[in-house]
Each structure stands twice: as structure tokens, then as C-alpha cells.
Specification:
single chain, 259 residues, alpha+beta, six-stranded mixed sheet, 4 helices, globular
């Protein structure tokens, strides 16, 4: 791996339950085993930055332990950030959302939650990664699973937020924001990915990865849900959908150089 190239993985880890279809039926021992295997996979991929979705900080349905810290410790990442989208206290406590692992310093983070539900809410985690002395902005996004209208409204919210962040921080960015995550799109061309490509046009010509490669469900993928939007000034992009059944989603890897 070239020291001048950045490797990013986006991966919905499904709360660590693997291919178990129902949340809450996986033992704590099995959860830890699954998370160690995820950590080993990230190590084998030599990922510099990892954007994770459906990560539990402390939830009764997934062992009541910090999954991000567990993966971080076993994969050897020095930097991590959590973006909690859902929080419920009491006997049925839940706390989960998006997260980032990085081999490079994470200089700043911010979490935006799209709504106010305590369970099933979506949002995004913004981070500034210091790579080669330059600031690489990254958005780790998870969109609504069933409603096209809500997905498009969530993208409007994201883009409006990015405009404000660009005004505040854009002069420090080496490239426009990388946007990645689980877009939950159906098999239509006029949903979230097409919409976001249009909304990001003000930043320049983004490229969408992967193209026409399904990522869900992982044993026999039929739907493309997981993407990375690579901004202008990122060159020689390589993308791979990783064959893995450690979650119901397959990870997506992109590697590129920064001009």
C-alpha cells in the first residue's frame, strides 16, 4: 500500500449479530467472536479509515458492551469516534449509531441525528481526518430504510448542513467531503444515490462507487445499498466489494490518492 494513498472501508456491521435475522438472539460470547472476526477483516484489508453503521455503544439487545471499543482494541486503531443516533435508558437500554475508526488523527467530529425517535433513528457522523498533514472531511451516513420521501429529506438536511460546514471549515479542506455509508436504496434510479450526486454538483464532479455491484444480503447480494461518493481531486480510484458474511451487508473498500 502506497503511503500517499488512502484506503477507506464502509461497513454496516448489523449490531455484531452476523447473519442472525432477529436482533437480541445472539449471545454475548457469539457477539464478541463476530466482532473479533470483523476486526481481523479490517486488518487484512489494511483500511486506514473505517466508517461503520449499526454500531452499539451499550445496548441490551447486543451484550451491553461497547462494540466500537472492542473492534478498535482488536484491530489496533489508535483513533475512534462514535455518532449516537439512538439512545434509550432503563431496563431495555439502547445506544447505537455510526462510528469511525482511523489510523490517522481525527481532528474534529460532529453528529447530526435526522429525527427524535429513540429507536430506529438515522443520522450521520462528520469527521476531519488528518492525512499527510492535510484535512480530509468525511461523512458516514445511514439513511431511512423504507421511505424514499424520508431519504430525500434526509439528504436535503445533509447538504444544507454541509453548506454551513463548508462556510466554516472549507478553506482547510484538502478535498470536498467524502460521503459514504448505508443508503438503503431500492432498485430505482431516482432515489438517494442519484439525488445526492445532483446535490453535490456544487462541489464538482463526484464519482459513485461501487457501480452496479450489489452489497446486500451478503451471502447472495441482490441490492446495492452501500456506497462511497468520491469527490474531485481524488485520483486513481480503486473500489472493491469485499466478499464477507460477517454481517448481512458486504463491506465496500475504496482506495485513492489525493491530488
Amino acid at each position: 500500500m502506497s503511503p500517499h494513498r488512502l484506503r477507506i472501508v464502509t461497513f454496516n456491521i448489523a449490531h455484531g449479530r452476523g447473519l442472525t435475522p432477529i436482533q437480541g438472539l445472539t449471545s454475548s460470547r457469539k457477539l464478541r467472536h463476530n466482532l473479533r472476526r470483523i476486526a481481523a477483516l479490517l486488518g487484512s484489508l489494511e483500511a486506514d479509515v473505517v466508517a461503520l453503521q449499526e454500531v452499539d455503544e451499550r445496548s441490551v439487545w447486543s451484550g451491553n458492551f461497547d462494540h466500537l471499543d472492542y473492534i478498535r482494541a482488536h484491530a489496533g486503531y489508535p483513533f475512534a469516534a462514535f455518532g449516537i443516533n439512538n439512545r434509550r435508558v432503563g431496563l431495555m437500554n439502547l445506544c447505537y449509531g455510526n462510528a469511525i475508526l482511523s489510523r490517522f488523527q481525527v481532528a474534529a467530529t460532529e453528529t447530526v441525528v435526522f429525527g427524535k425517535r429513540r429507536v430506529g433513528e438515522k443520522g450521520f457522523l462528520y469527521a476531519e481526518i488528518v492525512f499527510g498533514g492535510r484535512i480530509i472531511p468525511l461523512v458516514n451516513l445511514h439513511l431511512h430504510f423504507s421511505s424514499r420521501r424520508r431519504r430525500l429529506l434526509q439528504l436535503d438536511q445533509l447538504v444544507a448542513w454541509l453548506r454551513g460546514k463548508q462556510h466554516e471549515r472549507g478553506a482547510a479542506w484538502a478535498v470536498p467531503p467524502i460521503v459514504c455509508g448505508d443508503f438503503n436504496v431500492p432498485d430505482t434510479r431516482d432515489d438517494a444515490t442519484a439525488s445526492l450526486l445532483g446535490l453535490l454538483h456544487d462541489y464538482g464532479d463526484y464519482t459513485l462507487h461501487p457501480r452496479l455491484v450489489p452489497t446486500f444480503p451478503s451471502p447472495m447480494p441482490r441490492r446495492a445499498l452501500d456506497f462511497v461518493f468520491v469527490p474531485p481531486r481524488c485520483r486513481h480510484v480503486h473500489c472493491e466489494v469485499v466478499r464477507s458474511v460477517l454481517s448481512d451487508h458486504r463491506p465496500v473498500l475504496v482506495e485513492f490518492s489525493v491530488a
